[in-house]
Queue: 4 jobs
Job 1
Amino acid sequence: MFNVRISVTLLPSILDPKGKASLGALKNLGFDSVESVRIGKLIDLEINVSTEQEAKEAAEHATRKLLANEVMEDFEILSIEEK
């Protein structure tokens, strides 16, 4: 069993309305040094396979198939840990 953590973020060319709204709110709260905000998703999967390579392949396949829209989003596998 492996725990896999995946980060999904919008492509740089895609407008991020949540990020823009958060930036405005931060500025209103006095966080003037914050220059930009991009909002993404953090996904944790528990995958029941034998090897780290199988966990990575399963996570990539699941992310490409459902968890990320590759037309608008990038993803990165941040960690794979044996449970």
Job 2
Amino acid sequence: MIDSAVLEQAQAEARLLLTEDKDFGELVIRRDRSVPGLVLLRIDPQMRVLKQKRLVEVIDRFGDVLFGRYTIVEPGRIRSRPLRS
């Protein structure tokens, strides 16, 4: 599925978009594409246990607050900013 179709599906189904692909950040932030919320995992794909742990931490900590935000999850920090309406 191409990126624009993924964004459209997330929007149509009112779902968070969870990705490891930085291109989605480009589409949403710089090209002003709409999505209910975007979570970008920036953790080495080989570090599966850490990736899973950090994702669970973010969901437990922020939950529904992830909607309407662009959140970047890294090994040692979490960054988040509001999406444009």
Job 3
Amino acid sequence: MSDQPVEKLRIGSVTATIWCNTSDKGRTYYTITILRAYRTKDGWKDTASFRPRDLPVITQLTDLASRRIIELQAASETEAAA
């Protein structure tokens, strides 16, 4: 996984982060991580644990991330063909 994300998509306290990776064979592929932010007395923290009310948001974010990854892949293929 690269050090910097390609993009972060956020709805409320839930964020989907898109990462660009390269396989051992040099193939580019994308992954996502999904986290929910919450506040404690010590400040903001992230968790991969979700409440039932977060599920519709996760559905929206995975749809947005999927569409964005398709765009990124198409752009990569166009650049590779040029």
Job 4
Amino acid sequence: MKIALDVDGVLADVIKSWLIHSNSIRPHISIEQITNWDFWKKFKINRYDFYEELNLCWKDWHSIPTVEDNLSKTTQNLSNLGQVDILTARALSTNSFVKNWLELHDITYQNYVSVIDGKMKADLDYDIFIDDSPINAIKFLEHKKNVFLYSQPWNQHISDPRIKRISTLSEAIEQLKL
């Protein structure tokens, strides 16, 4: 079994780091106000500025927290079920920072795969996709792929019976064992 594991929003809580940055340069935004994937539109933040700020957060990769505790053990357990590859959509300039972050947190994976746009992930040959993007989830379904949607405030509006929603990676592991 080949498992594609996303980084931002599944392993790394980069939104928490982005909020600290954003709140230092513009009016306060709370995590509770982030209810859509493209939430920056609601706050009149330019898309390119938002992504540039995310990239800036990754330069300080030491400070980015994990989404959940014990990711080292959990990703090791996931890798016992099949080949786990990190599959991330990002600017090429941040890949080294992400790899450093993965090493810092002792994340188990076989290959690191980076695409320029998240929707490109669906074209790749994986049996299972673990992601938090509602846009990617829909694209995976269009390509007849299996998706575990990692629950985040920005994907709560997605409710397709073909999507397996998880709140922790351990839940994905339990479902994959069935």
